[in-house]
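Morning run. Coffee first, then this:
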Amino acid sequence: MKTDQLRRPTARAPLCIAAIVFLLFGCLLVTGCRDNRVSTPKQQDDIIHLDRLAPLQPATREPQKQTFKVAIAAILSPRGTVDSYQPLLDYLQGRLARPVQLVQRRTYGEINDLVARNAVDIAFICTGAYLSTLPKKLMTLVAVPRINGKLTYNALIIVPTHARTQTFADLRGHVFAFTDPLSNTGYLYPMSLLAKHGWKPETFFRRTMFTYSHDHSIAAVAESVADGASVDSLVYAYAISRDPSLGRKTRVILRSQDFGMPPVVASVQADQKEISAIRHILVSMDKNSNGRRVLQKLGIDGFVFPEKNLYADRALCPTGVR
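And here it is:
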């Protein structure tokens, strides 16, 4: 029994050897096939040669059109500005074939700073704000709106309808609303009236406030928050046309001399070709039907490029009458 057990492995040896030989032959066959594939000329092209690298072609992208920024001084409240000027912004966007962005700030001085730094492309500003920059030559005049056939407007001193006030002097000891320290009609004009008589605002009025928009000043008087205010005649007419109750709650006791219309300006650093292009768009608005519709919504006849003396002959000094 022991002898039979020793002989069985010997009988299986040839089978094991045959299996090993078969496996070795299969590996050689596979390796040979791989070697043949690598050596074919077609596959040699797939090898990356570090000494033959070429730069990748840049991806083709359509260039983004630069946003055209329009600043509008807070002559109206922010909501009123958006409602009033949106048709004009849409029109400019169509003509320029560029995105147009409205830029607003709380004060006239902040808008002036944006223009001076060339941070906006054009700005609709107050006359007083423009006059304050003339000595330093920070702005270029682009265009001026013509309204009711005129290039001038006025300051209006308004009071509540029920008040007994008849003259500016009657406002002594009362609350008065200014618009902005750079506002021609909302600050410089009433300050010139005070200076003319040698009065000072801190002693003449019981209290003063800055509303930072003409429609806010109108509302302050209409609601008897203020006993008087000096406002832009254009804004006053526009406000009472939209809300007739404002006309019933307020009345005008004094109208100023004529002032040059609030202008459209750009920075002196701006590209002159671009200034010429936007000026052409504005002054030609009344020549096409879409432009006329926008102007009608704004209550503007059209835009023109005025003579320089429009402002030089009508400027107010901050401390008094010239």
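Residues 155-256 form a domain with the D-Maltodextrin-Binding Protein; domain 2 fold (CATH 3.40.190.10). Good start to the day.
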